Amino acid sequence: MASIRYNPNGQKGKISYNADIVSGIVVLSLQETEGIELVPSKSKGIKICFEKEGIFADISVIAHYGYNVPELAYSIQQTVKQMVESMTKFKIAKIDVHVQSVVFPAPAAPAPAEENGEQEKIS
Fold first, then answer.
1. What's the first-to-final CA gap in the chain, in angstroms?
2. With the C-alpha atoms ordered 104, 105, 106, 107, is the resulting torsion angle positive or negative?
């Protein structure tokens, strides 16, 4: 686990951000995005890399049927960028979004058939 240090305005003392903290912020921002699910895996489909230019994020998601995929990807990029930059003061250099698949709604169950087409009357 890498620990990233941030020293604002040359002040004494240091603020350290663990890479898992930034990953947690990314997960939080993805939970706020409607129409997607995280890819179920050990790493939750999120890879974070700290470089001199800023943070590079590689995010894999599953889209829900009926949502516009390019709009979802743009929304993910904007939300992740805004949340990470406001919570950590790091700059986002690049966010790659990979839509792994689309989840379709479950088919509706057929209504139970009435016997002989008649309903019993209660007297």
1. 74
2. negative
Fold of 16-105: Alpha-Beta Plaits (3.30.70)
Cβ-contact 59, 26 below 8 angstroms = yes
d(CA 71, CA 75): 6
The Cα–Cα gap between 83 and 22 comes to 10
Please provide the size of the chain in residues. 123
27-46 pLDDT, tens digit per residue, is 999 988 899 988 877 667 89
pTM of the model: 0.71
SS3 letters for the chain? Answer: CCEEEECHHHCCCCEEEEHHHHHHHHHHHHHCCCCEEECCCCCCCEEEEEECCEEEEEEEEEEECCCCHHHHHHHHHHHHHHHHHHHHCCCEEEEEEEEEEEECCCCCCCCCCCHHHCCCCCC
**Residue 57 identity (one-letter amino acid):** A
Count how many Cα atoms sit within 13 Å of the Cα of residue 22 in the half-sphere of its side chain: 29
